[in-house]
Amino acid sequence: MPASSPARLRHVGTVLVLAAGLAIGVFGRETLLVQATDILIFALFALSLNLVVGQSGMVSMCHAAFFATGGYVFGVLQVKYGWTGVGGAAAAAVLAIAASVLLALVIGLLIIRVSHAYFIMLTLALGQLVYIVIWKWHSMTGGDDGLIGIAGVPGLQDARTFYMVAFVIVASCTALLFTIARSAFGHTLTAIRDNPLRAAFIGVPVRLFRLAAFVLAASFAALAGVGQAIFHRGMFPSSASFITSADALVAVVLGGTQWFFGPIVGAITFKILTYGLPHLTDYWLSCLGIVIIVVALSLPGGLLSLVARIDSRWRK
Amino acid sequence: MSIASSRQSGRGRGGLSSIRFAGLLVAGLTSLCATVAGVRAEDAIKIGVITSRTGVFALYGTAGEQGIRLAADEINKSGGIKGKQIELMLADTNSKPEDAGRLFREQTAQGAFLVIGAVASAESAAASTLAKENKVPFFTTGGYGRFLTEDAGHRYFFRLAMNVRGFYTPLARELAKKPLRKYCTINNDYEFARDLNRSTLAVIREGAPDVSVLDGCEFWVPLGTTDFASYITAIMSKGPEVVLFSGLVGPSARAFLAQAKSFGLFKIVLGAHASMGNPANAAGVREKDIPGNIFTAGDYPYPPVDTPSNMAFFKSYKERWNAMPMSESAAGYTTMKFVAKAIEKAGKLDREAFIMAAEGLDIESPAAGRITVRPFDHQSTQGVWTGNLAWDAKDDRAGMSNIGFVESAEFLPSAEEVAKLRSSPTK
Amino acid sequence: MLWLQFMSGLQSAAILFLLAAGLSIIYGVCHLLNIAHGSFFMLAMFLAYSITEKLSSNSDAGFLVALLVVPLMIAIIGILVEVLIFRHLYKADVLVQILPSIGLIFLAADLVRGVWGLESRSIDTPSWFSEPVAVMGAYIPGYYLFIIGTGALVSVLVWFLVNRTPWGLLVRATAANRDAALGLGVNARWMFTSVFGLSTWLVGLAGVLILPLAGANPGSDLDASVDAFAVVVIGGLGSIWGALAAALLIGMVKAFGILIVPQFTIAFVFILMAVVLLVRPAGLFGKLS
What we know:
The complex is a heterotrimer of chains A (316), B (427) and C (289).
Chain A: H1 4-27, H2 30-53, H3 63-79, H4 85-111, H5 116-136, H6 138-141, E1 147-148, H7 159-182, H8 184-194, H9 196-201, H10 206-232, E2 234-235, H11 242-255, H12 262-280, H13 284-298, H14 303-315
Antiparallel strand pairs in A: 1-2
Chain B: H1 2-37, E1 45-51, H2 58-77, E2 86-92, H3 97-109, E3 114-118, H4 121-134, E4 138-140, H5 146-149, E5 157-159, H6 165-177, E6 182-188, H7 191-207, E7 212-221, H8 229-238, E8 242-244, H9 251-263, H10 265-268, E9 270-273, E10 294-298, H11 308-321, H12 327-346, H13 351-358, E11 362-365, E12 369-372, E13 384-392, E14 397-406, H14 415-423
Parallel strand pairs in B: 1-2, 1-3, 3-4, 4-5, 6-7, 6-8, 8-9, 9-10
Antiparallel strand pairs in B: 10-13, 11-12, 13-14
Helix pairs in contact in B: 2-12, 3-4, 6-7, 12-13
Chain C: H1 2-30, H2 37-55, H3 59-84, H4 94-116, E1 132-135, E2 138-141, H5 142-164, H6 166-176, H7 178-183, H8 188-214, H9 220-235, H10 240-260, H11 265-279
Antiparallel strand pairs in C: 1-2
């Protein structure tokens, strides 16, 4: 029964990941906590991207724009308008997500009619425009010096507490995204991805669904951005550049776009490589490049397809 | 569809490459665990070093790190600090401020007594925020931005490198003395350059209030631009007397000079660039592309300053790294020496005691002589050299001629000014 | 004055066209987005630097050799990359195609860092072109005219290759209808490899030509890739003439735009890209698939 194989894997995987995540929170040393928090934020970002890429078949190169908008709106409200304290931070986070949703609506309406390579290029261009606005609007964003002095949330300064809170939030978001992926909405998106023409024929408002997926993904990316702002006590324009989008794309494809947990596996792998490789060699970028090329050539379905393959071999 | 194709192409090489990949992954994990477990000598003094070794600031970061490592080796060879060896914890930020922040935390969590950053302004700002929050001293060797020690300065931030004011203040005062009033400006479009351009013009106008930037002759080009033909033709058509291009950095400055030469721009106007005397900024400039009339400044000039301490530094740096020292190399070297001296003076590994010891302490900088860390803003009193952009045939690279030295008292803000800047921050 | 602006815009356009033409051809024939295109450009500049500086004490002769040899070297590297990597990915998802190009970008950047170090490298402008030439009353540096001339010559050459040779016929047939052409027995492997070779030859030529003006800089790879993508997207993916038109458009918008809004140069290309794509989603000369 090939169908049950991913399901079984998923249950085992979920339990393992949850246990490992909690263990890090309880026993991890501070270095590990910092790295794990960084991974959590990146994983949520990649996971939200996969709602657009894997589930809806739209390769977006402007996802970083929503991530950065979330972080910057939160940061500006804290730094320039003094929305600190628990209540202020919560309100700032809500407004940050709302701003990102609004931006995604505007960009989404512009791009929803193009597809394939042109979608990639147009999202790249619009994403870079957002980056340029952040870069040039110095009085508000700090430009390339960065927006520093973000207070965050009182009580979350400690690495362990922040990790635990981030873990709970990311886990809840993952569950939420999983529910969305398995809902009628999610199935419709998959149908549109596989055959947009057929979906349109049976009366699915294709563009509306695509737009909804795009905006929904942006809201989760914005939440990850808020996490980033609190984590670093600052925001920097690089978080909006297409390189950040490309990093997430690499993570998504590395893990496997067709697996719900692919982006998480990809994000963890990508981050571990970028933490670990520089300790081994000065030429760590080459090593990372080689790993990426080898995975693309030998495992186009991503790392999780390897696990599935091993699993099915055991069963024979 | 993608799963089917994975079966197809994965058949042949799949086994080997996935093993190789797994190997790499394990290696990465092991090293991660090794750093987590902290298998290191307990007795050494750990100093964190975050460097932009890759990415856009790699040239500056690498030079800084090499200076730091050279100094640490010298200190360790001569017996360490009160018998304790220095252990540097090295890490690459990939020129990303976020990574600079993360690495700062990792290193302090792993027991770094303080952190030195061979990184640019934004990365320095990221680390500075965390330094303040965690009460861990942070030294930048590559961030020149004024705000770092002024508006956003604090007890835990130090800079032995020069403040950007050193680049533009003496230069602007010289320009103001000339009978030239019509300016054009062209800069890379980023904050450091914007501040540099604005401040330079402000200082020029203090001496010559009637200096003006010609209408439509203020150009901002993206970082990395190397095609300047249309800018140069536009500038020439406006007929300025001075072209101010201080904020063109790295590849842009070099390309601008080469193309200005082919159009003959500097045959008819005077050029001014505040920091071509920083060797990294003049990297790749050709002898033939240097006109005689470009006015500039620098914090580690070529040909190298002919003092015994600088000659010794220059020689051992070249021997050790097979590379020419740059401003950042000297800053990194001086910072490491200063840190060692301050720890020795404090007498114990206590961060507050260290800061007490560091404030007002002096150190011998290779080229700039004795410099002091000012107690009220933790900025060193490193001075600046001004001169004309010229070819240094002996070292085979662009340098300066007619070099003059300007003391930091001429350009650094006073204690009152710093206090004022900090109480009403613009950032 | 406007005439001088026009000529400098033309020079930018010539370089942009050479930079982007290959990218467009690859997409047209192989349906592959090679994000690492700019890495070949950067590599060409550094190779040309080494050959010019190290081969001969006469830098003019060295540059001439580089001009002939480096594009071929880059084409060979391009062919190797195609055979080793991209050949296996033509049928794969666009995402899986992008991944190895990102890997290649990392590899090339590290290669340059390892071999040439971190400093920019540069060569002198060939002395044949050191004097400005008067064209319709304006003095234009000789080397710029050489670039414009080479750009024009290569456009004609590419036109001839595509429209007047048996190879070009196969290329056009494959671009028009890949499956049908392959079904009729076009040797797809050889075809794709040769297209990759031509495309990297072109970008190699662009790199050598611009070297005396721009210098070889680590980090120029991403800038070049973004520029090339803008040209290709505005012109229409897969259309060589679209690339030519877009290169001219961008060159002119930059040359004259800076006279009007000098402070927003940074956004020119992206605004142009967004506007063109919103009005014509397939670019100026492209067809929607």
